[in-house]
Amino acid sequence: MNEKVDVYCDNGSHKGTVKDILENSRYAVGFDGECSEGIVSEQCNLRLHREWDEGSWIPPLLDQVFSTISFLLFFCFLCACVFWLKLIAFFLLFFFYIYNREMRRIVLRYLLVFFEHGLW
Question: Are residues 35 and 10 part of one domain?
Answer without folding.
Answer: yes
